[in-house]
Amino acid sequence: MATTYEPIATTTLGSNAATITFSSISSSYTDLRLVFLPLSIAGGSTVNARLTFNGDTNTNYSQTIIYGDGTSVASTRFPSPSATEISLNYFSNMGDSNTPGLIQLDIFSYAGSTNKTLLWSLSNDKNGSGWTQNGVGLWRSTSAITSLTLTSGGTYRAGVTATLYGILKN
């Protein structure tokens, strides 16, 4: 098991944007981890972070998500072939203009020649009325992941930071 994370790239938005893209991802790691703190623009819509790989918006994605907020729980599944992206926070918008959310996403064997599996965790405190959500996903492609794009249902606010880490091979 790999024990060392190495930052590959960090993006800090200089202006409001609807997407964040990491491209030219090297294949020299075993796995990837994305850490993202989304915020929406003040007075704007909240963030609904969606993920695609290598520009693929075909129906090659599936996911299962569980959600809880201290009062209620929910789950859902998007089987293939129906999803054109991974919807990271399906049950609740996050990262409003006052309280950032936290997304931690792991992508396993991203450079291998088999389908790509994902595991993610989201949380949003919202000063005591927050929630948590966990998901697993699959990208049905044998291509190595060379780019990933986070698209917002609203607009990511200037100053938002996302970091992509590579997990080094032992």
What is this structure, in a nutshell?
By secondary structure, this protein is an all-beta fold.
What do these coordinates show?
The chain has 170 residues and is an all-beta fold. The protein has one domain (18-167). Helix content is 0%, strand content 51%. Strand 5 and strand 6 form a beta hairpin.
Number of domains: 1
Structural category: mainly beta
Radius of gyration using CA atoms only: 15 Å
**Annotation field: number of helices:** 0
Q: Order of strands side by side in the largest beta sheet? A: 1-12-3-8-9-10-5-6
- In round numbers, the mean pLDDT is 85
Shape, principal axes of CA atoms: globular
Beta fraction of the residues? over 45%
For the largest beta-sheet, the strand count, sense and barrel status come to: 8 strands, antiparallel
Low-confidence stretches: none
**Share of helix, binned:** under 10%
How many beta-strand segments? Answer: 12
Distance between the termini: 7 Å
- The topology string of helices and strands comes to EEEEEEEEEEEE
